[in-house]
Amino acid sequence: MTALERRFTAARTLATAAGALAMRMRPVPGSGTISMKGAQDWLTEADGAVERFLSEQLATAFPEDGFQGEEGGRAREGRLRWVVDPIDGTSNYAHGGARFCVSLALVEERTPLLGVLVAPALGEEFAARAGRGATLNQQPIRAAATDDLATAIVEVGWNMRRTDADFLGLVGRVRAAGAAPRIGGSGAMGMADVAAGRLDAYVELHIHVWDCAAAIVICQEAGATVSPFMEGDGPIAGGPILAAAPGVAAAMTAIGGF
Fold first, then answer.
1. CATH number of the domain to which 45 belongs
2. Taking the complete model, does pTM exceed 0.90, yes or no?
């Protein structure tokens, strides 16, 4: 087994265990275990616990690897770096919804090598290694063959880091092109749905690396077109992202303006 294969096997095992931990710690809305990092920026006790679990387990298994989490930042440096969002879709999670996931990626410099997303409430595992294809619950997946935005479903990611005018302008351009817009509350899950052909595109004006690193390699390995987020400031400060079925990628790039 190669070094990357060992890490891929470990990532799948640990992401599944982290998802189970998140389910055990799932808060009851109004229980007092939910707080806010900012406006509509949700935080639960489980976010920190899941991130600590993954950090500790990965440090034991691969002490030479770096680690970067949403809550704790870059805790360790290494040629290979694990990038973790302990719970992507925290607002859904905190409100009792099912659309959330544990996101775990391994990155070398600016290149995601593998990605695993586990959505425990949905019973789904998305996984991919560079050059080896992408799977949903161990079955191969491919991006949709859609080639016309007039028949497309497009998820538009929302956050407080861009103005209402920016967001509504993007939604308006998506709708003007004939596509049906959606908002699902999890960038990682939105991109994974593009990989599985459930959505034709996912676009967001600003996303962080921990939200999308795993989903990038999953989308790429499923044949989706992904914008060059990992170039420039994306891995450092975040930035815009597009994941799209190849047949609508050019049109969506024009709509997104990047």
1. 3.30.540.10
2. yes
